[in-house]
Amino acid sequence: xxxxxxxxxxxxxxxxxxxxxxxxxxxxxxxxxxxxxxxxxxxxxxxxxxxxxxxxxxxxxxxxxxxxxxxxxxxxxxxxxxxxxxxxxxxxxxxxxxxxxxxxxxxxxxxxxxxxxxxxxxxxxxxxxxxxxxxxxxxxxxxxxxxxxxxxxxxxxxxxxxxxxxxxxxxxxxxxxxxxxxxxxxxxxxxxxxxxxxxxxxxxx
Length: 205
Ligand code: MG
What we know:
This protein is α/β, with parallel strands linked by helices. Helices cover 32% and strands 21% of the residues. The protein has a domain at 16-63 and 130-204: Vaccinia Virus protein VP39 (Rossmann fold). The strands form 2 sheets. Strands 5-2-1-6-7-9-8 form a 7-stranded mixed β-sheet, with helices on both faces. A two-stranded antiparallel sheet has the order 3-4. Helix 1 (18-31) packs parallel to helix 2 and helix 5 packs parallel to helix 6.
């Protein structure tokens, strides 16, 4: 990728392939001209860094929404549990400290506005039109549907809806992101742009 990062990105915990990161950066670079961008599911900030750097170039803002208590798959005993992100005092996952550290390391504190709460709470009285929404939160069907229903309607015409972890074949991964991707396609509200690895990109008509 041509983008120069002020950090060794491999040192940031997270799940984002290089081609997806590149596509996410480019999409954010365009859509942050239309309004603030919102990421759902920031975890330790890997995708936040790519989106944030793009927003920063346009003097934009990236809302980074995550309750930082981990999705189902991050909980103790689950497949993607990371003991380093477990706060034993609270007996809860806590990725916020690690997130803040990474955002500070790349000088994005003036661009990224963390929303440390659930998608429901953040959406309840939200009325700001968004240039882009990136859905990468919980991967249960309930969580993915909720994120789609809460946020897709706030995207301005010409803005972008991005969805991570789309696996058209069920053997390759969970189907919830693919389900909301299909919903968005069927809604008639979005024009399909591209599927880069597992990252689906659509433009609001
Ligand atoms: Mg993901």
